[in-house]
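Notebook entry, structure prediction.
Reason for the run: the old model in the group folder had no record of what sequence produced it. Starting over properly, with the input documented here first.
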Amino acid sequence: MIRWIIVIFLALMLISWFTPLLQKLGFGRLPGDFRFRLFGREWFIPLATTVILSLIAGVLSKVL
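New structure, fully documented this time:
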């Protein structure tokens, strides 16, 4: 159980580090990425970006 908590924490940390770089590359602004305001807060749901990054990770795992 503790191993999964550590893995999730590290994954979230990596995502937060790479978010500015991915936004400069155009990720997060793809058709299918939803950004809206609700209750005075901006919400972001990156559906298309998630699919593309998953495909890239899958191809890399097959190649390597």
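Summary: The mean pLDDT is 86.
The old model has been moved to the deprecated folder.
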